[in-house]
Design brief:
- The chain is mostly beta strands.
- The protein has helices spanning 71-74, 186-207, 370-374; strands at residues 3-8, 13-15, 19-27, 40-55, 89-93, 97-105, 110-118, 127-128, 132-143, 149-159, 212-218, 221-228, 232-234, 238-244, 252-265, 278-288, 294-300, 309-310, 314-327, 335-337, 346-348, 354-366, 382-386.
- Strands 2, 4, 5, 6, 8, 9 and 10 form a seven-stranded mixed beta sheet that branches. Strands 13, 15, 16, 18, 19 and 22 form a six-stranded mixed beta sheet that branches. It has a four-stranded antiparallel beta sheet with strand order 7-3-1-23.
- Strand 9 and strand 10 form a beta hairpin.
Length: 387
């Protein structure tokens, strides 16, 4: 029996273009109950990253797979196929890397190997939607002599930040900030600079503030106004907005604001032409606001959510969805005087005419620092298997 342990050193979330590093340890455990222990042999071990695409058959017509030539090999249990047994299509994979050949482990002995690979910068982000899924995994294949291959899959999350692909690092390394007292490998140095660049680009894009003022009105007149100071956010930030109903002609009884994603399938891959778009609500605020001059809301963007993106099959966009309930009467008729005595009691009317209408405001949601997103990730940094 051999235990295989894979550990992602920095966490299970990465930016596309970063280097994924994983330490893989093979151990021949020494059992206290066994009277005689023997050495264990592994023929080889290999590792590879792949992205698996899965689509709902009721909503999406899958594009033809270009990996059909591997189907014959997949039937052979001695061939390393990382996505064997998984549904959907493998749309992206890195070249496999051999960790070792002919490994012998004595009882209680363990050996560790380091695997590193640059994540493709042109791949899709990790996404689990109502119609499609993009799932990234690091698969480690191990084989004993004359035995089937055993697979250890390490799922992780990939965030995509547009703009990194087109950025050219300066050729003059003297201009770039560095520590002269440390010797860094070129790959690690570039990867660190890539993460710093992504953080800087996100900070610049989401820190710009300007007043966006919108008038809220229906067919009968003005209800109020809405103010928001920016429309570009990172996941993990709060979307904050304020309402002003003091200048409205039509009384607003209630409003609700929902933070939603809009998942739409490209027309050529739709199962039915003109099929509806899928919406997912991530946060919601509802408030009764009759006789309220001003109000506000704050909706958090979950760190576990997917920033907006577009591929050849699916598009994900973010929006604020507003719903307003207004009175069909004037504000004064919304209260009834209940007594003619000196102590006056005002009560609400039992019935009144109302109008409802909705409004959508598109916003842009970008990724965040992958280390921050790792704290709430559903994936574990450590995975193991026994063979």
């Amino acid at each position: 029996m051999i235990e295989v342990l894979a550990k992602l050193g920095r966490g299970p979330v990465f930016l596309a273009g970063e280097v994924l590093e994983c330490v893989i340890t093979f151990t021949n455990p020494l059992s206290a109950s066994s009277t005689s222990a023997s050495s264990e042999m592994l023929a080889w071990a290999s590792a590879q990253i792949h992205c698996q695409f899965h689509a709902s058959e009721n909503r999406v017509v899958l594009p033809p797979s270009d990996g059909s030539k591997h189907d014959v090999q997949a039937e052979n249990e001695t061939v390393f196929v990382p996505n064997r047994g998984e549904r959907g299509q493998c749309i992206l994979s890195t070249p496999p890397k051999i960790l070792f050949c002919d490994l012998r482990l004595d009882p209680g002995e363990s050996k560790s190997y380091s695997y590193s690979e640059t994540l493709p910068i042109d791949g899709p982000p990790s996404f689990r939607g109502q119609s499609v899924k993009y799932v990234y995994k690091l698969t480690i294949g191990c084989q004993r002599v004359n035995s089937p291959i055993k697979l250890l899959r390490v799922p992780f999350r990939v965030l995509v930040l547009h703009g990194l692909k087109d950025y050219q690092f300066p050729q003059d390394e003297a201009v770039a900030p560095s520590n002269p007292f440390l010797e860094e490998e070129e790959g690690l140095k570039k990867d660190s600079r890539l993460a710093d660049l992504a953080t800087e680009l996100l900070m610049v894009a989401t820190s710009r503030r300007s007043l966006h003022l919108y008038n809220i009105s229906n067919t009968r007149g003005k209800v109020g106004s809405f103010c928001i100071f920016k429309t570009v956010y990172k996941i993990g930030e709060d979307v904050i907005g304020t309402f002003n109903f003091s200048e409205g002609d039509i009384p607003c009884l209630q409003f609700s604001v929902s933070l939603q994603t809009e998942e739409s399938i490209q027309e050529e891959f739709q199962r039915r032409r003109g099929q509806p778009v899928s919406f997912t609500t991530h946060a919601r605020h509802q408030e009764a606001c009759l006789h309220t001059a001003q109000s506000s809301f704050s909706l958090p963007i979950p760190l576990s959510s997917t920033p907006g993106f577009t591929t050849n099959i699916v598009s994900l966009k973010w929006r604020l969805h507003f719903e307003f309930v207004t009175s069909g009467e004037s504000a004064g008729t919304c209260l009834v005087r209940g007594s003619q005595s000196e102590a006056v009691t005002w009560t609400g009317v039992e019935q009144m005419e109302v109008d409802t209408f909705s409004w959508d405001l598109p916003i842009k949601v970008l990724p965040t620092n992958p280390i921050l997103a790792s704290y709430v990730s559903q994936f574990s940094s450590t995975n193991s298997i026994t063979i």
